[in-house]
């Protein structure tokens, strides 16, 4: 892939601040950046947005809103307030979407899934007011008890269709969904609801289910086929993000991590 | 659960020989044992089968056959030969079923899934001759590159229905499938094809995707609901196995591991 069609997610170079992420992305010729909210702390977002535009960088995603299932009403209110801040940040940056990490089960899976559906439906009008698109990220089933009860693209498609809003779609990361026999058909089904496409590769053994990912090409996923499906049958026309949560790469110099990401993307 | 309705899988006390596994199961009042093939090495199976019967223990499963996808014709022939030995062992022990760990992808997932279907179809007549039932085990998606490309009960049901043999069914382990929104309906669909039901609990963080499991009650799975679904809508009437692959419990005394398993099962 041409890096102009790719976006560098800030977590790939965890520890780097917004300026460093943007500089690295621009130096390598990325077309955009995906931003975790930790790099937005204390940043003037109007100013940052202008500087990113001047560098020729889109903001492909802000990560994250979500965490809808909560054990108490107070915690649900806190999650709601935080999700509105996330919408405001995505709006200020003109991001393509706000990624929703929907939240894990505190006990009953079916109840957690109801809270996710209700939470997105409640957030939708607020996001619509500022023109921010919400992207449900189906996550690997090994994260069902820690990050998200939405564990497949089939399930995310069901959820998004049930909500039935043109600003609620899907963020699809190869790492979370590559194993699924139904993936090609579900990408076709998602179609114009694909708001974000992300790449990370699958490597084993898993040492911690959150941060054992590989750079494109380090693992076993057919990323070329995945991107082709998203482009051709899904019709996704946006930038493809590289988002690598990896204890191994986080221990490396950010420059080396971006170099490896760029090489991996070039081979897709 | 009454332990008379449960079975102790040998891997829960990895390192113990067949005699020790059987003695522990009998002492605690288990109704049966599930046997990994490592405990059968060098054992006279006719004699072992008679002794297990005398102890009042069924053999609920032999683990494992499978590993159908192989990169070369020679390795496929070796897998075929090994699977026939596994069928012979399950026959000699009068086991309820031979569990099939179907094998991982060496590259193309769809091709691996074809090799799984073809491999089971090829093994079926041999198993039928000796009356051994084959139980496809859907495994957690995090094992798709190391153990099995059959990653959900939906997929296992599709596979087993496509093969269409009354001796080819399913081994269902809570650990592998608990996250799946479609699980209750798929248990109903499996129905009389449920040849084996196994319990392990989900605990995080994952330290190695194969052996991070918890004893019943240590994790987040609604095991009571799972067993109820298998019994009521699935119609499963056999013994429920406790099969805990756990580096943590393997470091403990086998007596303590069985004690913990028995306590966990009693609370289900």
TrEMBL record, chains A, B:
Pfam families: AP_endonuc_2. One of its GO terms (molecular function) is isomerase activity. Transmembrane segments: none annotated. Residues 23-257 form the Xylose isomerase-like TIM barrel domain. Keywords: Isomerase. Coiled coil: none annotated. InterPro entries: IolE/XylAMocC-like, Xyl_isomerase-like_sf, Xyl_isomerase-like_TIM-brl. This is Sugar phosphate isomerase/epimerase. It comes from Rhodococcus opacus.
């Amino acid at each position: 892939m041409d890096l102009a069609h790719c976006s560098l997610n800030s977590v790939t170079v965890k520890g780097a601040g917004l300026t460093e992420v943007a500089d690295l992305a621009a130096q390598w010729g990325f077309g955009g950046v995906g931003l975790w909210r930790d790099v937005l702390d204390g940043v003037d977002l109007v100013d940052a947005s202008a500087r990113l535009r001047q560098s020729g960088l889109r903001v492909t995603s802000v990560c994250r809103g979500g965490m809808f299932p909560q054990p108490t009403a107070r915690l649900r209110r806190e999650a709601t307030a935080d999700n509105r801040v996330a919408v405001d940040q995505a709006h200020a940056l003109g991001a393509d979407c706000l990624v929703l990490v929907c939240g894990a089960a505190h006990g009953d899976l079916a109840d957690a899934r109801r809270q996710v559906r209700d939470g997105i439906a409640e957030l939708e009008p607020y996001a619509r007011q500022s023109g921010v698109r919400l992207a449900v990220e189906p996550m690997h089933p090994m994260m069902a008890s820690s990050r998200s009860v939405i564990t497949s693209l089939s399930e995310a498609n069901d959820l998004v269709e049930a909500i039935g809003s043109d600003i609620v779609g899907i963020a699809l990361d190869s790492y979370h969904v590559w194993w699924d026999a139904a993936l090609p058909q579900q990408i076709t089904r998602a179609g114009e609801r694909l708001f974000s496409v992300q790449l990370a590769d699958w490597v084993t053994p898993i040492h911690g289910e959150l941060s054992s990912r590989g750079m494109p090409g380090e693992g076993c996923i057919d990323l070329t086929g995945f991107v082709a499906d998203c482009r051709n049958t899904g019709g996704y026309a946006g930038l493809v993000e590289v988002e690598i949560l990896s204890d191994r790469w986080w221990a490396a110099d950010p420059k080396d991590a971006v170099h490896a990401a760029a090489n991996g993307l070039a081979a897709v």
